[in-house]
Amino acid sequence: MRIAVGGIHTECSTYSPVLMTVEDFRVLRGAELLRADYFSFLEADGFEHVPLLHARAVPGGPVSRAAYDAFKTEFLERLRAALPLDGLYLAMHGAIKVDGMDDAEGDWISAARAVVGPNCPIATSYDLHGNVSQKIIDQIDIFAGYRTAPHIDTRETMVRAWSMLVQALRTGTRPGVAWAPAPLLLPGECTSTEDEPASSLYRRLPDFDQRPGILDANLMVGYVWADERRATACSVVTGSDKATASKVVEEIAASYWNERENFRFGAVTGPLEAMLDIAEEMTTRPVILADSGDNPTGGGVGDRADVLRALLARGWRDALIAGIADRPAVEACFMAGEGATLDLRLGGSLDPSSPVAEVTAIVVRLDDPGPIAERQAVVRVGGIEVVLSARRRPYHNIEDFRRLGLDPSSVRLLVVKSGYLSRELAPIANPNLMALTDGVVNQDIENLASERRQRPIFPFDRDFDFEPRARFSARWT
């Protein structure tokens, strides 16, 4: 049997003015996809996997229509050339915003369905911060979503979706998908699965999987920085029995709704200046400060210099900021060379509204892996070291620092553009502080511009009642 594999995966803040282009994506095509570790689980006796195209990018602003159309056109061309097919697996995210388009995943999956026809089962895997719509549900037969945030089960989730597809093809059965929207939209920083009440809610999901007629149960937090009608939390179930699936999606959605007032930030959290006051009093190291409003992995631009300015105003010493996306500054550092002293304007290179810092800096280290967009520079400004990157990117892995000759555990204060900390940084935080900074993914949720969301929805609205109602895929007959 032949299973085609592809998809598109990113997350887009509708509040960001910076459009993503083709160059922002890592694209796997054809045999390259099957060789990638990301898809290395694709092996089953009696099955041929047909690689199409998979495009993935660090979250950011909306994807330009030209970039999306280019990826979609190539994907569909490859899909048509792969026919006939027995199944299609799509590795998606669920929170893409394409400039000028609503529900890009619905558009992508609907287009794929039109090519493969009604008899080919489609399986999808999603980030739990993805947004689901009836248009999406109506095109698919199998759904699996992440169950951890921070995300440590990406591969396991993909395997769940793919395994259900393989089993369906082997047995000749056709699963169905049910879902229940819940009018609740909270940031991931309040709903981390490492903190209560999300921890308990997600621990229960495997128990639902064991119920007769249920194959896979999911709780989707949704993506709060998307001002779109489909942006909401929901439960989604893949099953073989509609009555049981109906009860389960309603139970999961109700359990999430009932906890809506109990979600809290896991880290010590507050305004930037208050967090810096705490950091100044600490004698332990490293204090890790998350610059949450400019977090690239949540869709932030990544070019703001707010925290650098605040530290300079305090005369702070022994701090490391990783990092600020500023290609012009990186290029200036490369022209000057290591050891050079130069005046730099840091920040605001992508979003003109981002704060900047005018500084005199010493170039400490240059990293040139080849492509200009991958270049990095480490500069020292007074007692502060700053990592500059030519492209938007996070610094969440220890290896990110080691590559630059930096030891994140040794500094007094480490600043990263993040919300909740990554699995590698969290264990060394001593302690972890989260600053409620400005940016296109700021945590002031209730005051976000909300022009297109369906209302009422918590916490934008509070005085309303809700009872979950199951909905089904049009394919589940």
From TrEMBL:
Keywords annotated in UniProt: Hydrolase, Metal-binding, Metalloprotease, Plasmid, Protease
Cofactor(s) recorded in Swiss-Prot or TrEMBL: Zn(2+)
Residue span(s) of domain Microcystin LR degradation protein MlrC C-terminal: 289-451
InterPro entries, alphabetized: MlrC (IPR009197), MlrC_C (IPR010799), MlrC_N (IPR015995)
Entry annotated with the keyword Ion transport: no
Top-level taxon of origin: Bacteria
One Pfam entry name: DUF1485
Domain Microcystin LR degradation protein MlrC N-terminal: residue ranges: 2-279
Cofactor binding mode and count: Binds 1 zinc ion per subunit.
Annotated function: Involved in peptidolytic degradation of cyclic heptapeptide hepatotoxin microcystin (MC).
Name of the protein this chain belongs to: Microcystinase C
Organism: Sinorhizobium chiapasense
